[in-house]
Amino acid sequence: MGGDDRPKKLDRRDVLKGLSTLPALGLFGYAWEKQRRYQRARVAEAAAAAPAPADLQVINVALLGAGAQGQVLTDSMLRISGLRFRAVCDIWTEYNQKRVVNSLKRFKHEPNAYEDYREMLDKEKELDAVIIATPDFWHSQHAVDCLEAGKHVYCEKEMSNTLEGARKMVLAQRETGKLLQIGHQRRSNPRYRHCYDKLLNEAHLLGRIVTVYGQWNRGVTPDLGAPDRYAIPPSRLAQYGFRDMHQFRNWRWYKGKGGGPIVDLGSHQIDIYSWFLGANPSHVMASGGNLYYDPKTHEWYDTVMAVYDYDTPLGPAKAYYSTQTTNGSQGYFENFMGDQGTLLISESEINYAGQLYRDPNAPAWDEWVQKGYVTAPQEQETKPKSDSGAIADVRESVAPDQHTVPVTLRDPYHQPHLQNFFDTIRGKATLNCPAAEAYQTAVAVLRVNEAIEARAPLAFKPEDFKC
Amino acid sequence: MDDMTLTRPAMIAITIMRVVVGWHFLYEGIAKLTSASWSAAGFMRASRGPFAALFHGIANQPQLLDTANLVTSYGLTIIGVLLIVGLLTRLAAFGGLSLVLLFYICNPPFVGYFYSIPSEGSYLIVNKNLVEACALTVILLTRSGLFAGVDRIVRGLVFRRVAPARIGAA
Amino acid sequence: MTKNDMGNDGGVGLGHPSDLRGVLCFSHEAMATVYEVYTAQTDRQYAAQAAQACFDLVDRLERDLSRFLPNSDVTRINHLDAGGSTCVASSTLECLVIARHMFDLTDGAFDVSLGTGLPSLRLDTDGSIVHATANGVRLDLGGIGKGYAVDAMAEMLEDWDLPASLVHGGFSSVLALDPPPGREGWPLTLSDPRDGSRILERLTVRQIALAASGVRKRDHIMDPRTGCPVRDRRAAWVALGRPPGIAAAAVADALTTACMLLGWNQIERLCQNSPGAEAWVLQDEGLRHLGAIEQEIHHGW
């Protein structure tokens, strides 16, 4: 350039340096466009998605028992893809059966309606599985007949109201080789599974579980009734083993039909006791009574308190269980108390959804917090120092930190267990509560009513739990 | 402050920081502009700090709220672009600093306050808004636009007649 | 004295206890309010069983509709990202369809998503699936859920042959079926939510759904279109006739919320489009009555 000693206005270095960061803007635009395209593609894909992937094997299902529990199970099953409802069978044709058939039709299923389950098994040619939600005293015959007809069976708990009935179910499953899952749905609940697989069996967070406490408290409720206009004719009631409409609606309270609250409610939780402790009980003693309701319509005990002894792999343990139907204080939960920690859990996603407490003398849980097995602790308030100047007030232990189980169930409570059943049919899983295992719970639970009668501790022999 | 007193690697690092902060601002701004339903109302209504009453007041007045939304969304976008390319760097840094400090005082992480907006991380007085405010301060005071940004070109074009001794005078 | 307390949002009461001799009452807490069944029935045990069946139904609906339960349909919907979908109970979907219809009818004044994007949800009635096409939709079916539950309870009572009944949820959603024998209708009162003893209107109703929306001291109802609280209206009530097959209480619930926000002409138009609908809006200046019978503005007495 010319012999100018004024500084150059702009040389190439300046321009290069000046524009050096401009490409970042270009990069931004590119990244932005990619993200928009991705989002649009996702939305379009969702809009065009078929309801079930083409390779999902469709399972033909029948519902046997369309009462309250049958409806709960149906609600869950309607959210599981790849199921086709072929039939609904219930003796209350005027009411429950019709309502469930109609609700299935709203979901574009076309089930046939039956009153007699044998007719259903005869006529339904394309049936893979039957879901049984009839009263306990019918479970055995229904399950055995369905298994022998070549169907897989999901049967509500309790397996049966008698041990003999339960045994027949296990034998029928063994002979036919079909699947039989019993409806202890906590066995598939992700929170319970997390506790069992990771917290107890991998991390051994509680140390040695020495005592367990569980309860199910429910407030006073009137007996179940039925709309007058849908009353079932007495002849049909008698045909299926019911004395009258009241017994049909309240079978749980009658001897020979159900087992009362300890079986209705307790069987869920006592199943968890054995599962988590890794052992079957060796003794049970129990006290119960009909303290409140009319014994003519409530033949079973409305209040039961039971104590089980266990010989667990880590040592002896005792478990207390109580159920009552006159007061709902604290609802339902199980509390597993070990020498190194405590697990307070229930099926509910809001109350007692899984709280863990580490004993202050136990080794730190940092490793498990890091791995995401438990949440980081929320510190409880420390107790103020005592005024007397003593170094420590030994009467109350320092409150332990509270951790929670970092698993949430977003689906209805029974869905995971039903999903497990259907996944097993498709060969993609194994049953979380097969009949032989559920039989052990049935033994433990049905013995309680006997123990109350006997007014003495009853012993279990290991052979009792085998079939 | 003379940008010659900082070493070249230092200035490169600060430039990278400037571009990164600018990118963050630009993305935040564009996301708000292109979202159908974004409004600063939620953030302001959740204010629990010493100026909570002010922010609640703004959130509840439709006209003030509209202004706040415009200022935030366009402000973030424009400041982001300016910072990335290094144009009007000091102005942009100052504007960004003001915005971020406003966000900070709206929801300061002081001990004893807790917020309904779930936040990631754990903060005690210092949160990412404050850190970003500090970054913008550094950008403001070190004229990285003159080092590697369009400002350098502008300076070349505009200040060509000024004697060298005066260039870089604080 | 009227029952205006627990859970009562909008100042509806049931007339004098002396008017209700021979009427049985059963209560149940659910959805953060108290549901009650009033029925003129001599067989107490049968009535109690019918009421319990109604309450079990409400509990089941709450399990699906409550946004406070981690595994309810609504919570799952609230956790959907753009492109996600979830299968819901048919009752949930029905509720959403009604909510969407009312959203359109009231030009967005009634919005169960409170401005977070209800129209972006695609409702697939065939498979009972909700598809989300945008992020951040947050549903609150609290109000319309109560109305829907009340409608379901009324149907159940009719199934049980208890047509002379009245059901309500927190008195903010009331459905009066046939009146007790010998009476023209169920005696209801509308009163100022800030002062329960000040009765503004007495109604005698049969086969009517009545919903109330109101503001207690220091509470706000937010306008979902602007995000601002409503200031000039203190309460609104909507009464709807109950043709069969229509979820009258749910619709009345939606309309009453809309009445807190819409202009007078729009409310008039809404009342005309829903046959037999009447609306009352309480402002500081007094009570204004729109709909079936146009009257002068009442001042409180």
List the helices and strands and how they pair.
The complex is a heterotrimer of chains A (467), B (170) and C (301).
Chain A: H1 12-18, H2 22-48, E1 59-64, H3 68-77, E2 83-89, H4 93-106, E3 112-114, H5 117-123, E4 129-132, H6 136-148, E5 152-155, H7 163-176, E6 180-182, H8 190-200, E7 209-217, H9 234-239, H10 245-249, H11 261-264, H12 266-277, E8 281-289, E9 303-312, E10 315-324, E11 332-338, E12 341-345, E13 355-358, H13 366-370, E14 402-404, H14 415-425, H15 435-454, E15 458-459
Parallel strand pairs in A: 1-2, 1-4, 2-3, 4-5, 5-6, 7-10
Antiparallel strand pairs in A: 7-11, 8-9, 8-15, 9-10, 11-12, 12-13, 13-14
Chain B: H1 8-34, H2 41-45, H3 52-60, H4 62-85, H5 89-106, H6 128-142, H7 144-147, H8 150-158
Chain C: E1 12-14, E2 24-30, E3 33-39, H1 44-65, H2 73-78, E4 85-87, H3 90-105, E5 121-124, E6 129-132, H4 142-159, E7 165-169, E8 173-176, E9 186-191, E10 199-205, E11 208-214, E12 222-223, E13 228-229, E14 233-241, H5 248-259, H6 264-273, E15 278-283, E16 286-291
Antiparallel strand pairs in C: 1-9, 2-3, 3-7, 4-6, 5-6, 7-8, 8-11, 9-10, 11-14, 12-13, 14-15, 15-16
Helix pairs in contact in C: 1-4, 3-5, 4-5
User: How many helical elements of chain B?
Assistant: 8
Order of helices and strands of chain A: HHEHEHEHEHEHEHEHHHHEEEEEEHEHHE
Q: Low-confidence parts of chain B, pLDDT < 50 over ≥5 residues?
A: 112-120
Rounded Rg of chain A: 30 Å
| Largest Cβ-defined interface | A-C, 35 and 36 residues
Our estimate of the beta-strand percent of chain B is under 5%
> Oligomeric form of this entry?
heterotrimer
Beta-strand portion of chain A reads 15-25%
Gist of the model:
The complex is a heterotrimer of chains A (467), B (170) and C (301). With 170 residues, chain B is mainly α.
